[in-house]
C-alpha cells in the first residue's frame, strides 16, 4: 500500500511539472499585500506572434521558437502598478496589433518593481528597466534586427522608460508612442531625464490627464491633447467614484490608442497652439499637410512622419474632442451665423440633426459664450458623436444661461452648417429665423446657395 502511495505521488508530481512546463507564461499578477511591502525589480519579456498569439513565450538567453528579428518588434511597456494587478488592456492590444500586422509583440512585464504604494520607488527603477531592454535589443540586433524596426509603446512611467532606451541608441529607434507620459517627478526635468522628440525617429504622444497623473508639455514630434488633455468625457468628476476618479483620465490614452487599431473611425486632430484656440474655430485648416488631411490619432499617426519631423522645431500640438465611449469619434462641423439683432447677444446654441431614418445627433456649443452682433458673421465649431449623412431636419435652441431675468430673442439672418470631417458634403442653410430663448425651433434645412470658404 505504501508503494502504491509513493507511485501515485511520483506520477502526480510529474504531471504537475509537465503542466507547469507546458502552461503559457502570463503577466505577473500581484496583490495589494505586495504593494504594501514593495517589490524588488524583476523584468520578464513575453513574446506573442501570429504563430503563438494565445500562448506567450518567455524571451530569455536561450533561442526563441517564435521571434523573427527580420520583422517589426513592438515592445509594450506598462507603468506604475499601485495594486499589483495586471493591466486590463494587455490581451486587447496583442490581438489588435497582430490583426493589423505580422509583427513580434513583446510585453515588458516589470510588475515586480512597479508594484508599490510608494510611487517614488517605482520611479527609481525606470532606468534599470531601460538598461534591461537595451541588453535584449542588443541581442536582437546581433541576430539581424534593425533599429528602424524597433517600436516602443510606453504607458505612463513606461513612456519615459521608452525614452531612456531611445537615448541609449541616440534616437535611432524607429518609433516611440507615449500614452499619457507620467508627470510626477518628471515635470521640469531636462531632456536627458525624460522622454524627448530626439529619442526616436518618430515620437507621438497622447496626453489625457495633464492636470493629474500625466505630463502637460509637448514631448514628441506630435502631441495629441484629447479634450484639451484634461477631463475626459465619461470619466467620474468626483472622488466618491473611488479609484476610477484617479485613473480614468490617465487610462483614456490607452483606450484611445486601442480604438485607433480597430479603425471603426478615424479620430482627426487639428494642429493648434492651444485648446482654447481650437474651440474658438481658429485651427481647422489642414493645408500644411496636403495632400494628406489633418493627422489621425494613434497607430496610424506615423503616416504624417515626414511632415512632422521636418518642421523647425519638429514639435506639433494637436487638439480634438471625443465622445464618452468607444469609438470616441466626434464628427466636426462649422456653424456660420449672421444675426440682425440691434443689440449684441451673448449665448450658446444647441443643434440637433435628424436623418431620413429618424436617427438624431445633438451638440451644444458651450466652450465659451458666443458673441452675436448685427450683420457680423460668427463662426462656431461643433461636433456630433454620430455621422449623419442625409440630414432631413434640424433644430436650434438659443440660451444665455441666465436663470432669472428677461428672456431674449436671437434673430438669425443666415445660418450655415457644413462638415469639416466630410468636406465633400453640401452645406446646409436656413434664412430668416427667430429663436426665442430656451425654445427649440425645428425646420427643414436647404442646400446653401454657395460653398463656405
UniProtKB/TrEMBL annotation:
Chief location bin: membrane
UniProt keyword Secreted, yes or no: yes
Topology versus the membrane: Peripheral membrane protein
Protein name: Lipase member I isoform A
Family affiliation: Belongs to the AB hydrolase superfamily. Lipase family.
Binding residues annotated for Ca(2+), in chain numbering: 194, 196, 199
Alphabetical keyword list: Calcium, Cell membrane, Disulfide bond, Glycoprotein, Hydrolase, Lipid degradation, Lipid metabolism, Membrane, Metal-binding, Secreted, Signal
Location(s), subcellular: Cell membrane; Secreted
UniProt-recorded Gene Ontology molecular function terms: carboxylic ester hydrolase activity; heparin binding; metal ion binding; phospholipase activity
A Gene Ontology BP annotation from the UniProt entry: phosphatidic acid biosynthetic process
Stretches assigned to the Lipase domain: 36-328
Function: Hydrolyzes specifically phosphatidic acid (PA) to produce 2-acyl lysophosphatidic acid (LPA; a potent bioactive lipid mediator) and fatty acid. Does not hydrolyze other phospholipids, like phosphatidylserine (PS), phosphatidylcholine (PC) and phosphatidylethanolamine (PE) or triacylglycerol (TG).
Lipoprotein among keywords: no
Listed GO CC annotations: extracellular space; plasma membrane
Signal sequence segment: 1-18
Residue positions of the active site: 156 (nucleophile), 180 (charge relay system), 250 (charge relay system)
Reaction(s) catalysed by this chain's protein: 1-hexadecanoyl-2-(9Z-octadecenoyl)-sn-glycero-3-phosphate + H2O = 2-(9Z-octadecenoyl)-sn-glycero-3-phosphate + hexadecanoate + H(+)
